[in-house]
Amino acid sequence: MRIAVIGTGYLGAVHAAGMAELGYEVVGVDVDEAKIESLQNASMPFYEPDFEPLLRKHVGDRLTFTTDFAEVADADVHFICVGTPQQHGSMAADMTYVDAAIDSILPFLKDGALVVGKSTVPVGTAQRLADRLHEVTPRDIDVDLAWNPEFLREGFAVEDTLHPDRLVLGVTSDRAEDILRGVYAKTIEEDNTPVVITNLPTAELVKVAANSFLATKISFINAMSEICEIAGADVTKLADAIGHDNRIGRKFLNAGVGFGGGCLPKDIRAFSARAGELGAAASLAFLAEVDAINLRRREHVVEMVRRELDGLAGRRVAVLGAAFKPNSDDVRDSPALAIAGQLHLSGAQVSVYDPKAMANAAKVFPTLNYADSVEAAVKDAEVVLHLTEWTDFRELDPAVIGESVASKVIIDGRNCLDVDAYRAAGWTYLGLGR
Length: 434
What we know:
This protein is of the alpha/beta class. It is built from 18 helices and 14 strands. Strands 3-2-1-4-5-6 form a 6-stranded parallel beta sheet, with helices on both faces. Strands 11-10-9-12-13-14 form a 6-stranded parallel beta sheet. It has a two-stranded parallel ribbon with strand order 7-8. The protein starts with a strand and ends with a strand.
């Protein structure tokens, strides 16, 4: 079986390498020449643990990357893995890249081919694309469309691709289901992966529903954090207590600076926008407050710094973290970078350090000062902010870094540092909701 992957960004590149690891001949296609050149040279265009070894293992053998869409002509399955960013001036998702991907492969689809969407799209998109495929393809060519949403976690994308916790297959025919079960046969058999068969709209909704639930859970505990600070309670103990309830669970009940990245923020906004288009705006009205709570966390940290320093102009602040989460160089909608930027715009002298995301951060916010180490970032700082939960930061020796700062004040935006160790080393430790 030959597989084509359309779009070689974060999702597409990892999926292409994963399919090669499962034993298929794979071609990845993109219009970005620089990205394709990097991948074809087995060089990662972004940071993701365990990804580069897969590239080196399979590129030049069963995995190739190209800008020539004609190379997909003999593919049996075409995975659509392009981005669906937020539209400018709107909360809705931009379908430009999805539509362009379909248009690009239309002339090269062979009889019996299956087009499989993995991109996160507004419900109803799959049926629209299926109708287009059936209208445009010649009568003597039988082409089907299915939807197979992705559930990749940045930092664990290779693991999630090769060993997913579930497979959702939105199909309209037994043939499409059989093909997809064949594609994932090794995963299903060896890992006993649950397979959920749905229609197209349900498959489209699974990803945005999951992301909306996750975002709601995170914003809920952050709302509790706001109450805890006012009432003198400890949100970490609160989370432990309610997390013992198996109807709730402890995962993702960690109060902090909130969520970011390229998925959750734009997905909940697009979901709300689509609900409005369908006449069901009231059903998802709560997501607006979920989004608002999340954004307030960033403003709250800036105000914590302002209060601690009695102003921001000219004050020296160290920011540990730029990526939106650890084990990633992704700074899209990063709370850490947003906070650093707001402090800088308010007059503070901000020094940022991140193990992997420095280059990407500098592209987004070039006027910040980027240090080449933790030690350089905290030198002479009056406040240190811990904003991305890298293991390197959690394992810092508070006594050692305390030798470089001007004032031993740390704001733990992830509530994961050793409070006792910092206080024993003479630090003023400030957590969120504690």
